[in-house]
Specification:
alpha+beta, 6-stranded mixed beta sheet, 5 helices, 27% strand
Length: 166
């Protein structure tokens, strides 16, 4: 499956600031992709954290969705339109695995948790999952910045070489 035709959701552009009508539309896509029609990957259901976000502005949305459309800035999570407008990329990227468009690797984070990474390298977009009991859970998805790409590529090479931490 080719993922080269993925484009941002709002062709005319997305508000750089939080716009409830656009976020509601993206949340509906998220619900359809992960709640109403969950993905099965390698025999595991891909889950999300369903409890409502603790962030007041996002309290009507589930925690995973809020995490996906925001980025940590210090102690806060701020709405990031570049992440939000790609919410509909997450499911096809996961479902396409294995795929030549995706660099796949596992990496152990600083807390010792092994996570699966699906990096659409040409689109500069990463999806991260982790195992939770018998299932998987979406941890995050984000735009890969150029200054981080070398680190991610080194992790991919280590995984392919069998020298990664997972």
């Amino acid at each position: 499956m080719s993922l080269s035709n993925l484009t941002p959701y709002f062709i005319d552009g997305i508000n750089a600031q939080f716009a409830k009508d656009q976020v509601d539309e993206l949340y509906q896509i998220f619900r359809e992709d992960f709640i109403d029609n969950p993905i099965i990957l390698n025999g595991k259901k891909v889950k999300v954290i369903m409890k409502n976000s603790k962030i007041a502005q996002y309290s009507c949305y589930c925690e995973t969705f809020t995490h996906l459309i925001t980025k940590r800035e210090g102690q806060f999570r701020l709405y990031t339109c570049e992440r939000a407008e790609k919410i509909h990329w997450i499911k096809p990227i996961i479902e396409a695995h294995p795929c030549s468009d995706i660099l796949y690797y596992k990496w152990q984070d600083n807390n010792g948790i092994c996570k699966e990474h699906f990096w659409h390298i040409s689109k500069k977009f990463m999806v991260v999952l982790r195992d939770i009991d018998e299932d998987s859970r979406i941890v995050t998805a984000f735009c890969v910045e150029d200054d981080s790409a070398v680190t991610y590529y080194d992790r991919f090479k280590a995984y392919k070489a069998g020298t990664s931490t997972c």
